[in-house]
Amino acid sequence: MYPETKKLIQSIQWNQFEGGYGDSPETVASSLLTLCDAEDEDSVYSILYSDLISHLKYGFDVFPITAPVVDVFTQLNEEHFAHQAILLDYLGYIYATDIREAVPVLSYPVRYSYAKKIKPPVPALKLSENFSKHITTEQTIRSYIRVMYTTPLLFFLKRKRSQEYLS
Predict the structure, then answer these.
(1) Cα–Cα distance for residue pair 145/43, rounded to 1 Å
(2) Which of 21, 84, 142, 143 is deepest in the core (most CB within 10 A)?
(3) Structural domain total, the chain
(4) φ and ψ at 62, to 5 degrees?
């Protein structure tokens, strides 16, 4: 399934991107290929949160290897991936800290930032925002709102569009 996405995964020079571990380039590429063949939600969740997460994020740090992963998610979306809401939620989880920094209304109380390093926003966050704008099916957005937490969605979607779907 998803032949164009598989071609994209194979064409990316994964070794150029730093991940959480030394074997991150190989592990991320193979996990994404497995994701292309995943058919049910449980498999998708397992791949994203068990196989990929430690290679993409550690604590407050999001590793550069996340940028091509977002590109792969965008390609999956273009090929009508069945679990778009899960991918959107996953990106919201990866970038939760950066989202909260960018949208002050979503910030935690003062203790949230205690001992946090001040750093510039992650460059791949813009790619993630662009990915979310391509998820256009109302059913996907409504199911995401009902099932998942809504703060990443509020950041990713345009304000007018958010108001339309939340009402």
Answers:
(1) 21
(2) 84
(3) 2
(4) -110, 125
- Give tens-digit pLDDT for 124-158: 666 666 666 655 555 555 554 444 444 444 455 54
Amino acid letter at 139? Q
Range of the domain at 51: 1-106
143 within 8 A of 135, measured Cβ to Cβ: no
Flag whether 45 is in a domain.
yes
- The amino acid at residue 94 is I
Interatomic CA distance for residues 162 and 56, integer angstroms: 28
Q: Which residues contact 131 (CB under 8 A, 6 or more apart)?
A: 70, 73, 74, 77, 87, 88, 91
* Residue 59: count of CB within 10 angstroms of its CB: 8
Residue 61's DSSP bridge partners are 58
Cα–Cα distance for residue pair 44/37, rounded to 1 Å: 9
pTM summary value: 0.69
What is the C-alpha separation between 27 and 65, in angstroms, rounded? 11
* 22 contact partners, CB below 8 Å, separation of at least 6: none
Q: Residue 131 domain-assigned?
A: yes
pLDDT digits (tens, 9 = 90+) for 66-77: 999 999 998 998
